[in-house]
Amino acid sequence: MVHLVTTLRPETAAALSLTGIGWRVGGRTVLEDIDLAVRDGELLAVIGPNGAGKTSLFNLVTGLTRSSAGRIELHGRDVTTLPAHRRVRHGLGRTFQTSSVLPGMTVAQNAELAAQAAISGPYGSLKPWSRIGARARATAAEALERTRLSADATRRAGSLSHGGKRKLELAILLAGQASRPQQILLLDEPMAGMAVEEVPELTALIREIHASGATILMVEHHMEVVLGLAERIAVLHHGALLACDVPSLITENPTVREAYLGEPL
Ligand SMILES: Nc1ncnc2c1ncn2[C@@H]1O[C@H](COP(=O)(O)OP(=O)(O)OP(=O)(O)O)[C@@H](O)[C@H]1O
């Protein structure tokens, strides 16, 4: 098993740090001995063949599942045993592979709910729609503007195109994390199912969100998008971290190329 420690520039602290992370489920090892540090403000992409463990890794980082081994830190604070909603308070937010918008509500209401839930906290969020405040409305409006959805604010979310729904997921994420000073955003295959013509706009949005200071960890199969956005790329294969480096070195890495069985990266 390759044991790989990714080094950090001394001047930048890790926003997210994984040390010796492992996950066993149903008698099998899905992830083993993962050491990975994402710098504050970095955009790091995680790639790997189907079944490599990318989504499982996201689930461990967000607290949806609990790791069997290792330690997870957010901005230097140990969150390994914290439940998902407590990790959110440390600026951690996530989108999912499949669309998670509320289709019967308007675009604005989707973003407002996320903003109000963040303001009200875990218990207030049980019925956040009962009292959407002015602050939540303003936060949601800003998130819609950033994701170029303002013109669609009064539309039913279910009537958006697939690309529109993915933009709304980003807006929901931004609205929910707006008050957190150090955002760590996990994007799980943001381009999945997108029409080719929708990819450049979403890529530009992610670039802008990153440029505004957010730390981004992104799983993505679309290599053009990964190579265009990522500062570093981590490669997962059979639950192990094969390599983590700048894009130019990853695409030349013989071990990585072998893992993809000669498929072009
Ligand atoms: N709850 C679970 N119980 C048993 N096996 C699981 C569970 N969750 C994931 N696995 C297995 O772990 C492996 C990694 O799955 P995971 O979904 O993390 O891979 P992935 O890299 O995200 O794949 P894809 O690119 O297809 O989304 C797979 O073989 C999967 O079947």
UniProtKB/TrEMBL annotation:
Alphabetized PROSITE patterns for the sequence: ABC_TRANSPORTER_2
GO CC terms of this entry: plasma membrane
Gene3D superfamilies with a match to the protein in the record: P-loop containing nucleotide triphosphate hydrolases (3.40.50.300)
Name of the protein: ABC transporter ATP-binding protein
Keyword Transport among UniProt keywords: yes
The keyword Hydrolase belongs to this UniProt entry's keyword annotation: no
Keywords for this protein: ATP-binding, Nucleotide-binding, Transport
InterPro entries linked: AAA+_ATPase (IPR003593), ABC_AA/LPS_Transport (IPR051120), ABC_transporter-like_ATP-bd (IPR003439), P-loop_NTPase (IPR027417)
Source organism per UniProt: Actinospica acidithermotolerans
Domain of life of the native organism: Bacteria
GO molecular function, one term: ATP hydrolysis activity
